[in-house]
Design goal:
Blueprint: H1 20-41, H2 52-65, H3 67-84, H4 102-113, H5 117-149, H6 162-174, H7 178-189, H8 195-215, H9 221-240, H10 244-264, H11 271-298
């Protein structure tokens, strides 16, 4: 089992003197994680009941197939409710248009991918959670970075690919905790054996995020090559630190994704990808917190690096 691609939902509780960024992170992390677990759980067979998967598939198919009738019934109800309230609903322009229902496009998509409607819903939920965790981590590091170093005077924005290699690195270097952070991260993750491994992994996550947001999850020839290069870069970092088992376990989870991508130009989100970005974000933020706690103790009670300095009184 590789912790990076496995499912966990426990966190370090915040302490009263912990920085605001960690408390805010936990709040948002919780609001992403619990709904994701619930929504995915009700669509995932797990009780061992005979025929449970087929029953779930049938229920989902029935729900999707009934969407057009339910939508039309609601539109008719709108007019009736207006008349009952002595209101003129006016013309519903949609009634005179040739329209289709999202359910048909969804069914066509599931057939194209070669999975059931239920599995496609789960994949979409995985993708949604992936984006939420990605944005949470990106925003957390950006907020810490800007609070400590300010905003560029020329108005330039921090690119997503720079979150780890530039922003996080400067945060660590500025607080003199790069070494302690790296050790803590390696100890907690059993994967990020160096800062370079983390940076390479984030580069892959950033590519996946960008292809999903800007290209609907599709990969052309150039992006397929980029995906492979970034995956290989992670493995090379692991091999360089003599972690063959870790590299093998990582590839067991990611190689099927790469094969699908190479063959179809499409990436279907799975649990491993969602787990990867969720655990990355938690491992990093917890390691940063613990390193700063240790630094604060070593400074014998001096103000925490994230705490605002008191305003100087004017006479």
């Amino acid at each position: 089992m590789l912790p990076l691609t496995s499912f966990f939902c426990d966190v370090l509780p915040a302490r009263p003197r912990d920085p605001d960024y960690y408390k805010a992170f936990l709040t948002q992390y919780t609001l992403i994680t619990v709904p994701a677990i619930f929504s995915q759980g009700i669509l995932t067979p797990g009780s061992g009941k005979v025929g449970e998967k087929a029953e779930l598939d049938s229920d989902v198919d029935a729900f999707v197939n009934e969407l057009p009738d339910n939508a039309q019934a609601r539109r008719q109800l709108f007019g009736k409710l207006c008349f009952a309230s002595q209101l003129d609903p006016g013309e519903m322009i949609q009634e005179s248009e040739k329209r289709t229902f999202v359910s048909q496009s969804f069914i066509d998509r599931s057939k194209e991918v070669g999975i059931s409607n239920r599995e496609l819903i789960l994949s979409a939920l995985n993708a949604s959670a992936f984006l939420n965790y990605f944005c949470l981590f990106e925003d957390t590091i950006k907020q810490i970075y800007h609070r400590r170093f300010g905003y560029p005077k020329d108005g330039t924005m921090v690119a997503g690919g720079e979150i780890v290699s530039v922003c996080l690195k400067k945060i660590l270097d500025g607080n003199n905790i790069t070494e302690s952070f790296s050790k803590e991260l390696a100890r907690r993750s059993k994967f990020f054996v160096s800062f370079e491994t983390l940076s390479a992994t984030w580069d892959l996550m950033n590519l996946i995020r960008n292809r999903l947001i800007h290209h609907g999850g599709y990969y052309g020839k150039a992006s397929k090559i980029t995906f492979k290069k970034r995956l290989d870069a992670i493995v090379e970092e692991l091999k360089g630190d003599e972690c063959p088992v870790t590299a093998s376990l990582f590839l067991d989870s990611l190689e099927p994704i790469e094969k699908e991508l190479t063959k179809t130009g499409r990436l279907t989100f799975c649990n491993a990808l969602e787990n990867c970005i969720r655990n990355l974000s938690l491992f990093v933020v917890e390691s940063l917190l613990l390193s700063e706690r240790a630094s604060r103790r070593n400074k014998h009670g001096k103000p925490h690096a994230n705490e605002r300095k008191p305003e100087r009184e004017t006479v």
